[in-house]
Amino acid sequence: MTEETSRPRPAPRGDLHTQFALAPDPAKLFARRADRFAARAEGHELAPYLRFMADLARAQAALLPTLPLLSPIQADHAARAAEHGMPPIDRARLADDPALTATITGFLQAAAALAMPAPATAALAHLRADPAVQRQHLANALEDAVAADAVAEHVFIAAALQLHAARLAAQLPPDLLTPVGTGLCPACGGAPVACVLVDRPGAHNARYCVCATCATQWNAVRVTCVLCGGTEGIAYQHIEGRDDGIAAETCNACHGYVKLLSQAEHPELDPVADDVASLGLDLKLQDAGWRRGAMNPYLTGY
Ligand SMILES: [Zn+2]
Ligand SMILES: [Zn+2]
After folding, report:
1. Labelling 299: which of 132, 151, 272, 284 has CA 20 to 30 A away?
2. Cα Dmax for the chain
3. pTM to 2 decimals?
4. What is the structure's pLDDT at 16?
5. 205 C-alpha to center of ligand 2: Å?
6. Is the pLDDT of residue 6 over 90?
């Protein structure tokens, strides 16, 4: 592993025209993610798991056109939430959203047709047999928390929640979104899965955090810890000799790290798929005492 330490310096400002938030496009998001998981599975030591993840993402994409229309979050509700520094998607109320319940039911049914490891088959049967179990895991997923003895159940519920949350976020006018706190998604208040460096008109190499739940992206000033807001003792670590565009931004102040994926150099990088596929970087960092600050329902337990 190699490390480059940055010297403390004034935090650079993004381009004036850099948009603060970008809404996800669910129709493309899950299909691309499926392709990326499948591509990363080639020759990877985690190939069976990555192929299962590809199938889950494909099931997410396939379910999209069958889901009932959502009633969009009203602009006045979003404006009121912003006045109080709150995200417009209220996670506490999602648990009782019938559209989310329908999405979970549909996704669990679709997942039953997939080939999967035995523990996942058992977890899926457990969930399908008991709506109370689904509700319990949904409550955990809505808090970005996982029960250590139920990681397999969490994967299915989190995948269904991603689908619903991305559809909700896709309907939010990005101009309505305002910062709600360091390292928090401005649409749903969730944690990032990773950050990306993008190359878009008006945003060359700008950094965006990507929400693990709703896939909204929000601009975050570079060389600033997205976990604690610290600007000193920020360093970048990557696996030596690997030019894959994936690094971890470590912070001496909070001892946390979040991965930084350069889509500017490697447009094919997917924050969720490449986060799972770069688990080796997490293991090295955690051996060295760094704490993973990002959330990924497919990497729980790490
Ligand atoms: Zn979000
Ligand atoms: Zn920090």
Report:
1. 132
2. 56
3. 0.93
4. 46
5. 21
6. no
